[in-house]
Task: structure prediction
Amino acid sequence: MLANIARLVTAAHAGGVQVVHAIAERRPDGRGASRNARLFRAAARLPVQQLSGTPAVRVAAPIDVAREDLVVRRLHGLSPLQGTDVDPLLRNLGCRTLIVTGVSANVAIPNAVFDAVNRGYTVVVPADAIAGVPSDYTPAMIRHTLALVATVATTDEVLACFTGPPDGLRRV
Result:
C-alpha cells in the first residue's frame, strides 16, 4: 500500500497535481482530542502514541513530502476533512476531484470519502493504496460501501490518467 501511495505522490508531483497529507495526531497533554468513542479511548492507551512532533505522526516512507505539498494535522475527529482546513484549501485551489489513499479502511478512509462526496467532490479510491484491519475487510468495504459513491480503480489505472485520457478507470 505504501509503495502504491508513493508512486501516486511521485506522479502527482511530476504532473503538478496538489498533494495533501492529512495527519491525525494528539497533543502530549491530550487537549482537543476526542473522547466520545471507544476508539479514541483505546488509541490513548496504545504503546505508540500519535503525539505531535514524534516519528509516529510523520508521513511514512517511502512517501515523499514536497515543499508544495499541504500537510494538514487534526487533533480530533475521524475524518481528514471534518473540522480541518482541507476543504477550504482545496476549494481555493479549484480542486474538484480527490484521490483518497492511506489508512484506515475501517474509519478514516470511509469518513473522508463520504465527507468529500457530501461536499460535492468527485472521489477516486485506488483500492491497492488503502489498508485496514483485518486485511480481508478492506476489499469488502471497497466493494460494498465505497464503490457506491466513489470511482474505484487501481494505482496503475490512476497513474494512466496522469499521463493520458481518464478512460482507464472502471467502476467496481
User: Anything to note?
Assistant: Residues 2-15 form the longest helix (14 residues). The helical segments are 2-15, 38-44, 86-92, 108-118, 137-144, 155-163.
